[in-house]
Design a protein that fits this description.
The chain is α/β, with parallel strands linked by helices. It is built from five helices and eleven strands, in the order ββββαβββαββαβαβα. The structure holds hypoxanthine. Pathway: Purine metabolism; purine nucleoside salvage.
Length: 247
């Protein structure tokens, strides 16, 4: 079974033949929404809407620990996380798809480990490569097989949100080496690593980051919405291909 986490613009999987929805409890509380179990092209998938079914949970209040715990309990071969990002690197434009290979974490105050408290010994997981290499390779092959451009390497800056960044903050992120900016890859990626679940992300570039391109004077939320609507079917096509390819 493959697990898919959907972000802004992907609160349900259109091609999922739904079998059942299950509310789950975890030692860390409830996930953002009920888990949706079903099949895509005959292959089992479990889907979770990161921000809740009605997109009511902002990035800094997502219960990432409950989400990843609940998905892990389904025994998935991996988690594909879909999320919108802003583009910092000039050659990434709204509508482009990116598979990041690195993260810089600027978030704060989020519950970002399972290894704390009296019963769980401190553990320092290796996070040199924050995304699973094999799952990334499989996603790259799936995209190539159906002729969808998926940029293979990008540094993802995880910001706290829910507000967007200032132009000066984006300049700083660029100096730090970031290519795209989003609000959810952390702590999602590290929690999956702690539980040993392969995790990779597909990012949809929703807008130029603050102060860049047509966001020089501000970012239009309507434009973001339109871009996401158009690009999500490409993300779904990649996931479908991943499911049906036998590598
Ligand atoms: N910044 C942070 N997160 C985002 C953006 C952005 O510009 N666009 C979509 N998610």
């Amino acid at each position: 079974m493959l697990a898919v986490i959907g972000g802004s613009g992907l609160t349900q999987l259109a091609s999922l033949e739904l079998v059942e929805r299950q509310r789950r409890r975890t030692p860390y509380g409830e996930p953002s929404a009920a888990l949706s179990f079903g099949r895509i092209s005959g292959c089992p998938v479990v889907f979770l809407a990161r921000h809740g079914d009605d997109h009511g949970i902002p990035p800094h209040q997502v219960n990432y620990r409950a989400n990843i715990w609940a998905l892990r309990e389904c025994g998935p071969v991996g988690i594909v996380a879909v999320a919108a990002v802003g583009s910092i690197r000039a050659n990434l434009s709204p509508g482009d798809l990116v598979m990041p290979d690195q993260i810089i974490d600027y978030t704060w105050g989020r519950e970002s480990t399972y290894h704390e408290g009296p019963e769980r010994a401190v553990r320092h997981v290796d996070f040199t490569e924050p995304f699973d290499r094999r799952l990334r390779q499989r996603l790259a092959r799936a995209a190539a097989a159906i002729g969808i451009d998926l940029a293979h390497s990008a540094v993802y800056a995880a910001t706290q949100g829910p507000r967007l960044e200032t132009a000066a903050e984006i300049n700083r992120l660029e100096r730090d080496g970031a290519d795209v900016v989003g609000m959810t890859a952390m702590p999602e990626a590290v929690l999956a690593r702690e539980l040993g679940v392969p995790y990779a992300a597909i990012n949809v570039v929703a807008n130029y980051a603050a102060g860049r391109g047509d966001s020089r004077e501000g970012i239009s939320l309507e434009a973001i919405h339109d871009v996401l609507g158009e690009s999500m079917h490409q993300v779904l096509a990649v996931i479908e291909r991943l499911l049906t390819s036998d590598d």
